[in-house]
Design brief:
about 140 residues, Surface presentation of antigens (SPOA)
Length: about 140
């Protein structure tokens, strides 16, 4: 089995990720931990509380999607699609895919195969400042 740059086994990483996904998807909302919130007093957090505040959101699931490209077609053409139809996208072959989290672009990547499963190798992560610029 191949080791990544950190010397860890890529198969173990995939197994852990798949097990976590199965637990979230298979268990329904009843198996998710119940959120507990402290009463908000309006005060700013004290230095050192940042780590504790971050811990509150670390287990919130998000949807990650990879976008190969986009196109715009009419409903007439959409209804004429069948098996074997080809849809031309707005990207060239070999261009990086967009990695989206809850619909927001966070990175670009390329498709890789690990243990006969597809994955994405991140090639460029979008900084928080760049994401804020795109909102304006």
């Amino acid at each position: 089995m191949a080791n990544d740059q950190n010397g860890t086994d890529a198969g173990d990483d995939w197994a852990a990720a798949l097990a976590e996904q199965a637990a979230v998807e298979g268990g329904g909302t009843d198996s998710l931990p119940k959120a507990e919130f402290e009463e908000f007093d309006g005060a700013r957090p004290a230095p050192g509380d940042d780590q504790r505040n971050l811990e509150v959101i670390l287990d919130i699931p998000v949807i990650i999607s990879m976008e190969v490209g986009r196109t715009r077609i009419s409903i007439r053409n959409l209804l004429q699609l069948n098996q074997g139809s080809i849809i031309e996208l707005d990207r060239l072959a070999g261009e990086p895919l967009d990695v989206m989290v809850n619909g927001t672009l966070i990175a670009h990547g390329e498709v890789v195969v690990v243990n006969e499963k597809y994955g994405i190798r991140l090639t460029d992560v979008i900084s928080a400042a760049e994401r804020v610029k795109k909102l304006a």
